[in-house]
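Translate sequence into structure tokens.
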Amino acid sequence: MENANPPPTNNRPVPPAALRAQAIQELYKLQRILAFVDSRLEIIERFLNNISNQPNETNMNDLESDDESVNTPLVSSFPHSDNDSDDDEVLN
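Result follows.
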């Protein structure tokens, strides 16, 4: 035979007005979080638009020649390399 009475609980019944007030408070918190996320997404969108609006290619014909830098050798940025055979080597 089944027990017709449910087991007792320690939870007191919550009045509907209190539930409504709690739901409204939670909704307000969620709206504030949503506004925060939206503002961050707008910042990210503007950042990405700025990146995508920049030219992707450089027209090599528009670059001015600097005669002094044309034949400047590149020197290794690792002068204390463990590989002794590359000491003082000029890169072309």
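Note: Residues 18-51 form one domain.
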